[in-house]
Amino acid sequence: MGHGALAAGPDLLTAAMAALVIVAIAGALYTHRFGLSHLLVFMAVGMLTGVDGPLGLPFDNHKLAVTVGNLAVALILFDGGLRTRWPEVRRGLLPAALLATLGVAATACIVAGIAHLALDVSWSEGLLLGAAVSSTDASAVFAQFTASQLKLQPRIAATIEVESAMNDPMAVVLTLGLIAWLSPFGQANEPAADGMATLLRLLAEQLGYGLLTGVGGGLLAAFWVRRLPVTDDHDGLAALLMAALGLLMFAGTTLLGGSGFLAVYAAGLLVRHHAGRVAQLALPGLNGYTWLAEAVLFLLLGLLVTPHEAWRLAGPALAVALGLMLVARPAAVLLCLAPLGFGWRQQAFVAWSGLRGAVPIVLATYPVLAGMPDGWRFFDVAFVVVLLSLLIQGPTLAPLARRLGVEHADDKDQEQSHRGTETQRE
């Protein structure tokens, strides 16, 4: 009987996870019609399955959620790099780099002030929360753009997509550095100058090692892949090869102390640029892996949250979420993009497209894992921030793009317009 119970455990868990994924995907197919992100459905199914849902399954394994989250985001970023053409990167690199560094820092500082007032936390703890929610999420941005079928002006599209893939390292460094600085918890244990030096050193290591390993590994991978006898997707082997390369790049860079997120995105860009034929053959199959990664990740995050505890912080969390969307993000965009000649319409859309997704929730679990007494408050607030971002910003992106006139007509529309003009002249 004992052996049967042990054998039934993994089978029951597998059946439960598979059933949850099936239900979430079925629901996502319907919500897609309303412009809602499918990530919301995965999260909702996890919440309904969790401790406050009908099934009431307890789940508090934050370490597992972080591990799965990191791997899922790495795979999504590598896939995003493989799908991004090099001209788009060059077009949006400077504004995206500013938003991914200066913009993230400015957002974190402004959110710190809002959290200080709304949650009655210290400035340093408010900055920790601001750092956790400061980065936009690549998976949320890519998924929403695909769901809304948005065709933006090239410069805006490149800026938003490249920024969402580049700004994770800054948020990770700020979060980890502040957790290390806040020991004993609630008080900085070293002078401000030393704390800033530590943050700058961590940032240099993350960005430096991440960029070096991403560029070096990407070029090496592209050189090797181009010489493989890959003539088609080989029943999905090409996609599996790309997924393995991305995860290897992420794990290796992380072991070296660099940003694995930056490394996999840079490697994906270079593989696409130098081995584009093989990369394109792998994309259809790789898309399935990224969908599975997103599904499992948001199911786990939904299971992890305790809605009745998050509800206690509904008021302060709402203030932080609205402050982030309406004050912090627009101010950071204005600071970074106004000097580059972006008009107010373009700035407004870039500000509103700063969707939050898995990364802020994953980063908000770090204080919990570090044993901070109020770590659960950061997690609950980050969850509300992400939930409201996907509910409010996601469905309104396409209508706002039309309202602001930042959509880019495709070649077919331009050709029809050109023909119409010629007919009128005749």
From TrEMBL:
Domain of life: Bacteria
Keywords in alphabetical order: Antiport, Cell membrane, Ion transport, Membrane, Transmembrane, Transmembrane helix, Transport
Membrane topology qualifier: Multi-pass membrane protein
Sequence intervals crossing the membrane: 12-32, 39-58, 64-82, 94-119, 169-186, 207-225, 237-265, 286-305, 317-337, 349-369, 375-393
Annotated compartments: Cell membrane
Main subcellular location: membrane
Family matches, as Pfam families: Na_H_Exchanger
Protein name: Potassium/proton antiporter
